[in-house]
Amino acid sequence: FFLMIRRPPRSTLSSSSAASDVYKRQVSTQSTGLLSTSCCCCCLVHSSAMSGDHMVTVLEDFCGDEIVWFTLLRRNRELVYFCISKFCFFTCTPENVKAAFEGLYDDDPIRQQDLIPEQVNYAHVTKIIRDTADSMMFMVVLAEEDPVLLETANREEVIEEIHIHWKTDYMMRLWRAPSLKIVDEWIYNVPRFGGGDVALFSKEPQGKAKLDVFGYFVFVNDKFKPMLDSKKKEIPGAYSTSAEKLYISKDKLRSCSRLGMRDVTGNLKVQTFEVAHAFIKQGGKVPPNVLMYSALHRKRMNLSGDLASWSCWVIHLRTAQNDIMVAGCRRKYIPPSAEKYTTVWIKYRGPMVEENPMQEMEAMVDSLGPSVSVSYFDTLGIQIKTNLLQLDEEAYAFMFNRLSIEPELEDMHIRFYKGCVGLLELDGFAGASQDAIFEDVDPVEDIFEEVIEPLKKDPHEGVSLEDWSPRLARYLGFCLDGGILPEEVGLEEMCSLLCGKAKDDEGEIIPAESLRSRATIMRVLDFLVHVKPRGKSFPKNGAPVDDDPNFSEPGHPDGNLISRLINLPDFEFQPRVMIRLLQIQSGSRRVRDRVRVR
């Protein structure tokens, strides 16, 4: 099926070559935001350059060539990495890449032959056929070998990448610049399983119209018709009736790392209100209005079998004449890379009615889905990034609950959690017992000596100690704050113990003044919050527990994390634990007013 001859990496092209200029220009547009132009074009995004470089290095070592672009797609129904180099493209299964990366067959030359990637030179590509029945399927036709059948949600982008590199290779060989033949035809004699074409499974019900716009579909009342501009052309995403108007739009893809830990109740809610106020404006001013409804809406349908996570906020405003409704529908962890998100906006304006108009809006939100659904995740790429601890707390929860992926720290995160439970157990906190959880993991006597310090000194390959420490603090904070055992003791119980609000097994309040674990708990919180002057490194040693015998005394100027923050003119920290501290009133108003979440 493929040309199996492996070619060693070629030398850099001459700077005087015209083809070289074309190649450099195309590479510069891709490598600056390494493989980050769409939800499916890479496993690791530009905001996480460390992980992107790491994944590219893994694929380059496997393919034996310089990789300038890659994606995860299906070849003959099998998941493969599709890797583009200067003069050829490679396909290789994630299982083989992982086996080579972990060196599973280093001592078995016969098995190593199975790890050779399949290679196709651009010189052998004659044309590309886009299937007219399945929007994910296309075929690369070769001169002498069997064609390559591929399926991907970002079909046009993959075809464009092949075309660019095919043309560059042709110029270098023959000094001409033709265009690769790309045709739209029915691809015969191939198995069809429905693919990712959602149209097969999302037929609109009676009385509804299915709108396909910006790569998404939604069911609306069939009375809505497309709006036309002055040239009688349809306006994308704009629909109307005699008295109502409906607008659908979509934001650009962005990195999930920009969302923050309070995405739904914070960012999405605020943005939905901003969009609603901009939509309601008349003559540049917001007319008098009443907020009728504002709430999180949970989608009740998944017609496309979408694997991504959805968060929706809906708002209903009423003016003297109109009902205004806006829904912000955020689609996060878009497969296969699970690193991108976008927001689809549904905006409605119509005359005021007596019945509840939100039912119609919520029905539209429920039916919303991607026109092309990707039914797989790049688990290898996600695992590599997770191992680098580059996710935020919500992403860790999604990867673990949906994909069963967590950082490969052996059992150190479990030991950290057990160590924290042991601190609560030391002072008789009700229900705290190391022996009652994870019985196959040994109890922890000294959480810093046995867990935190060894983890800090052993960063993942390619991560500096300075970058590793705050990532580790963020992940361990997530583990303690419900990430491992949501229903058991955790960060809140630890903070309540310090505040003198905790009870023992007999229901008695545990006095904060007599805590045996106070100094260690403060040191743990100090590490988890990871406060540091902005632009500087976190101190190698945490709170000076050993050097100051009075550190554990309540009111000690260095023994209280919040008190120390007051003396820092400008600082940065890991926000999750800090927000939790403020939520349970561990901090003063002076600190709360000054906190800036990075």
Could you give the topology of this structure?
Layout: H1 18-31, H2 49-63, E1 69-75, E2 78-84, E3 88-92, H3 94-101, H4 109-112, E4 118-121, E5 125-131, E6 137-142, E7 148-151, H5 155-174, E8 181-185, E9 208-213, E10 216-221, E11 225-228, E12 234-240, E13 245-250, E14 254-255, H6 263-280, E15 290-297, E16 309-318, E17 322-332, E18 340-351, H7 358-367, E19 369-370, H8 379-387, H9 393-403, H10 412-426, H11 447-456, H12 465-483, H13 491-498, H14 518-529, E20 532-533, H15 561-566, E21 571-572, H16 575-583, H17 589-594
Helix pairs in contact: 1-5, 10-11
Task: Write a structural description.
- By secondary structure, this protein is α+β, with helices and mostly antiparallel strands.
- Helices cover 32% and strands 21% of the residues.
- It is built from 17 helices and 21 strands.
- It has an eight-stranded mixed sheet with strand order 4-3-2-1-7-6-5-8, sandwiched between helices. Strands 11, 12, 13, 14, 15, 16, 17 and 18 form an eight-stranded antiparallel sheet that branches. It has a three-stranded antiparallel sheet with strand order 9-10-19.
- The chain starts with 17 loop residues before the first helix and ends with a helix.
